[in-house]
Amino acid sequence: MLLTILIPVLSLLLPLIWGVIIFNRLASVRQHLLESWSDVDVELKRRYDLIPNLVATVKGYAAHERETLERVIELRNQARENVGRPDRQSGDEQAMVVGVDRLLAVAEAYPELKADAGFRELQSELANTEDRIAAGRRFYNANVREMNQLCTTIPSNIVAGFCGFETRGFFEPDPAERAPVTTDFGD
Known about the structure:
CATH topology: de novo design (two linked rop proteins)
Helix content: over 70%
Distance between the termini: 95 Å
Structural class: mainly alpha
Number of domains: 1
Number of helices: 6
Radius of gyration: 24 Å
Number of strands: 0
Shape: rod-shaped
CATH class: Mainly Alpha
CATH superfamily: LemA-like domain
């Protein structure tokens, strides 16, 4: 008699427990995603704050490079305003990095600028910030990979679909933007 009651109860209770465990895992990974993106976002904002100072310093030495300076500020503003999904934001971020790289390449043509202590300090801060962004990107992308695995593999995809969990896009540059930067100084 006990067995006839226990079997139906367990057959109902075990799937429910399984569903709760999977849901909690998905919710935990989603929180890790939010936290890791927040860390990246803080460093992106730090980079946004450094770029105008870098441009102003270069402008003092290389005023005739106005087009490059304006383009970097334009790219910085575009990236700062794009606060959408991280996978969509990565294209603007990469375009801005390419612009900053071009700005730094311009600086190479000005020995007095390269010797300026303020410029070297800004360049160092920018390099440190880029390192922190890269580390944050790796952490975020690892969490994206975990969420995507949970949302696409059986049996967790059943709970993910039922509860509205979705796959996420990675925060990475577009393949076309991975090409090396070329700069022509008209020598």
